[in-house]
Design goal:
Blueprint lengths: L21 H4 E4 L2 H4 E11 L3 E8 L5 E7 L4 H16 L9 E8 L3 E6 L7 H6 L6 H20 L2 E2 L8 E5 L5 E5 L6 E2 L3 E3 L29 E3 L2 H17 L13 H13 L18 H10 L10 H9 L7
Parallel strand pairs: 1-5
Antiparallel strand pairs: 2-3, 3-4, 4-6, 5-6, 7-10, 8-9, 11-12
Helix pairs in contact: 5-6, 5-9
Bound molecules: adenosine-5'-diphosphate (ADP) and magnesium ion (MG).
Length: 326
Amino acid sequence: MAIVVDKLEALPPKGDDFCLDVRKDVVNIVNLKNVLSRLRILPNSTGSTARCAAVQFKDSKQQVALKMFKQCDEETGHRFMEEARIAVKVSDHPNVITTSLPLYRSEKEGFIMVIELANGGDLWDYVFQSKPKPEYELRGLSRQMVDGLSHVHGCGYAHMDVKLENFVVFVNADNSKTLKLIDFGLAYGLGRWQDRVEMDCSGAAYYAPERFPLQPPLYSPQEAYFCVQTSFDVWGLGICLVVMFTLQYPWDRADITKDIRYAKFQEWASHFRYGDASRESAPEIFQCFSDAWLDIFVSIFDEIEETRLTMAQLRSAIDRPDSIYD
Ligand SMILES: Nc1ncnc2c1ncn2[C@@H]1O[C@H](COP(=O)(O)OP(=O)(O)O)[C@@H](O)[C@H]1O
Ligand SMILES: [Mg+2]
């Protein structure tokens, strides 16, 4: 059943002054295909709620990406408006994708967000589907990832779904690459509380341990939740860096009770922190890194959020001239 757009409630959480008005900001159109001359569904965009397409408008010939939410029910409408609100709010940065207004809704295609189109696909494809990249290039990409994400943090949100597929690549005229952060579907206000939940999704390898449920017994009801902090995204970025620099995932999920590779890393890191373990005894995937970068990864993958490496520290680490590799 189609939803009545006007019935959506106001979405901004308390204390946030930016909001979208469904009457003003969502335009109803009859059939998307009437206004488009081309529509190509993008590879890797077969998510459960939305799919993305590269399109060209008939009149302006403008090429953009559309993120289309298949369903038209009220719950999808809320999620769409919340994602769009954050996406528009964080749009003003060279390393964050620009999402424009108005938003659209059509009977046939559901809710539609209009986004600038990246001409180089997403970062996962770029890293895995073309030849290995030199360190200086990967370092430049990492810097852009930190900068885009720091902007989102500065706007008061954690992205909560940092992974290679959520950065897109713009190939510039001189063949240099600009990365932009996309997909604010899981973004959440800093300082708010979220449930720790069991999950089996594509992003789980990037999630910090605080997101996974603690083993019972729980000693207080608060242990069922975690506070959303920038440190959650630092962890996700850390996984991105390991994957970019080694072309391997270090573990499937950051849960010592369920993932032996992760448990082994934490066991080794607990000794390395106190100078009791060497690089040679590190899990194999980490052995290619310099001692200085092993320190950095141990600090990124610190299970205690308060002592985890900060975004600013990660930015200065990337700027250091010494090699990431041993
Ligand atoms: N603006 C864009 N330009 C090019 N490709 C994009 C763009 N936005 C999304 N994509 C592609 O579509 C995929 C899914 O988009 P995303 O917004 O992450 O949706 P989901 O919420 O389903 O993960 C991305 O991983 C990327 O491959
Ligand atoms: Mg995504």
